[in-house]
Amino acid sequence: MRAFREAVEAGDLDAVEALLSDDVVFTSPVVFKPYAGKAITAAILRGVVRVFEDFRYVRELTGADERDHALVFTARVGERELTGCDFIHLDDNGLIDEFMVMVRPLSGAQALAEAMGAKFDEIAAEAAARSV
């Protein structure tokens, strides 16, 4: 998923959003219920960029059909270092329709949950504004 990776690494969140399907489903590493829709997914990704420090992709895996991708990353949230993976699936149009994130260790996931929770009202408001 070269276009997604390059957009993230360049900090081009408009390009990231353009790669999302309207009905994308985002599964968070720290929240039970998935989020459905482009506006909330884009807002969450924008929030993550504000929370993660020293973010970088370190490995990329692609499925045989080139519709499934795994992007392994490292980042820091406050004093907690974490490793994670973005699992991405592409629809028939080449847009991201499934986006699942996993992180470790537990202390890193807890730091991420706390930092994102503190920003979630802002994230939800941004998503609502983009849905209009």
What percentage of the residues does DSSP assign to strands (E)? 35-45%
Number of helices: 4
- The residue-averaged pLDDT reads 94
Span of the ends, CA to CA = 29 Å
Note the main attributes of this structure.
single chain, 132 residues, alpha+beta, 6-stranded mixed sheet, 6 strands, 42% helix
Topology:
Layout: H1 2-10, H2 13-18, E1 20-27, E2 35-36, H3 38-51, E3 53-62, E4 68-77, E5 80-90, E6 96-104, H4 106-131
Parallel strand pairs: 1-6
Antiparallel strand pairs: 1-2, 3-4, 4-5, 5-6
Helix pairs in contact: 3-4
Structure description:
The chain has helices spanning 2-10, 13-18, 38-51, 106-131, and strands at residues 20-27, 35-36, 53-62, 68-77, 80-90, 96-104. By secondary structure, it is of the alpha+beta class. Strands 2-1-6-5-4-3 form a six-stranded mixed beta sheet. Strand 3 and strand 4 (68-77) form a beta hairpin. The chain is globular and about 40 Å long. The mean pLDDT is 94.
